[in-house]
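Schema walkthrough. Field components (list of strings):
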Amino acid sequence: MALQVLVCTLYLAAGLAAVVVLRLRGPGGLAMVVLWPFLLPPRLLAEGPAAMEPSAQAVDRARAALQALAAPPESCARILAELEASLARRALRRRELEAALASAPPGIQPRLQEILRTEVGALEAGHAVADELTAQLTLLRFVGPAALADEAAMEGMEALLARIQAQLSLE
Amino acid sequence: MSTEPIVVTSDLTPLSAERPARPPRPAGPAPRKEPRSPFLPPAEVAGPSLDELVDAQGRARPLALELLADPAGVLARIRDPQQLEGLVVGALAVVATCIALFAAVLMSAHEPQVILRAAGLATLSVLLGLAAALGPIYGTSVVMAARLPMGRLVAVLLASVATGALLLPALAPVLHICQGLDPVWAGPLAAVGSFAIMGGVAGLRLRRLLLDLAFSAGGMDPGARFRVGVLTRMALAFTGLTVSLAFWAFDAFLAG
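Field assembly_structure (string):
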C-alpha cells in the first residue's frame, strides 16, 4: 500500500512540477497535472520553448550510427571525417563572416549578408546530408550484415556516399 | 359462332372529345432526382452530400465521425499544432467513456459498486498502458533515425485507440446477450472477442496514421519506409504488451 501511495505521489508531483516549471497557461490545469503524459507533449509542441537546434549534432549522430555498425562499409569513416572537416571549416568561415559583418562599413554590408546567407545554406545542407547518412547507416544496422553483400540494399548507401564525395570535391 | 368484326368503342371518352393540350415534352427524358445512394451517379442525386451539409454549416466535423470514417481529417488535426491538444483531449474522453461503458456492461450482473470499480479500473488500465507505451515507442523512433515528435506520437496513439474504442459500445449488446445465454463460455469469449476486434482496428489505424504521417511529410524512399515500418510494428508490440500488463495488474474484471 505504501508503495502505491509513493508511486501516485511521485506521478502527481511530476505533473505539478512540469506545470510550474514550464509556466503553462491555459485551461485545464488540474487535468494537466493528472493526465500529464498525454496532455503535456501536445501543449509543448504548440507553445513550448523552441527545441534545441538539431543540426549541430548531426555529425555526432552519424558517427555514433557508424560505430554501432558491426562491419561498416569501407570509405565510410573517411568520408565522414572529410564531411566533418568541411563542416568545421564552414562553421569557422561563418563566424568570421558574422564578425566582419558587425564591423563592416554600410556600403558593403548587403554583399556580405548575401555571402553569409549562401554560407549558412551550405552549412545546413551539410547537416542534412549528415542526417541522411545517419538514416542509411541505421538502415544497414537493422537490415543486418547480409545487406553488405546485397547490391540492391547497398545502392542507396553508395549513391549517398558518391553524392557527399562530389559535394566535398566541389569545394 | 359470330362472324361480325369486333369493334372496340368507348362510351366514356369518345375519340372525338376535346382533350386539354399536353405540355411539350423535353427532348430527352427528364432527369429524376433521387436520394443519395452508392448506386447513383452524382448527377442524378438530389441535394448536397452529407459532407457538403456539414461544411455549409461552418462547423468542424465531429471528432467521433473523423475517428471512425476519415483518417485524412485526423491526420490534418495531427499536423496542426493548434488542433493537436483538442484532438488528444477528445480522444482521451472517447477512450475513457467507451471503455468504462463496456466494463459496466461486462459486469452488469453484479452490484453497483462492483460495476463502478470495474469501470474505473478498466479505464485506468488502458490509460496507464498507453502512457507506459509512449516512452519505448519514442525511444524506438530515435534509434531507427525516424524521430516522431512526442506530441504527435501521443495524438497518433490516442486517436488509433479511440477509433478501436468507439467500436466497443456497438459490441456491448452482443456481449450482454452472450452473457445472458451462457455466462461460463459465451460471455467471456464475447468479451475477449470484443477486445480483440478493438485491438485489431486500433492497430490497423495506428499503422495507417503513422505511414500517412510519414508520407505526407514527403521524401519517403524505400529506406525510410523500412524504418517507419519497423517503428510501426514496434509501436503495435509495445502498446499491446503494456495495455495487457496493465489489465493483468489491476484485475479490473474480477468481482469483489
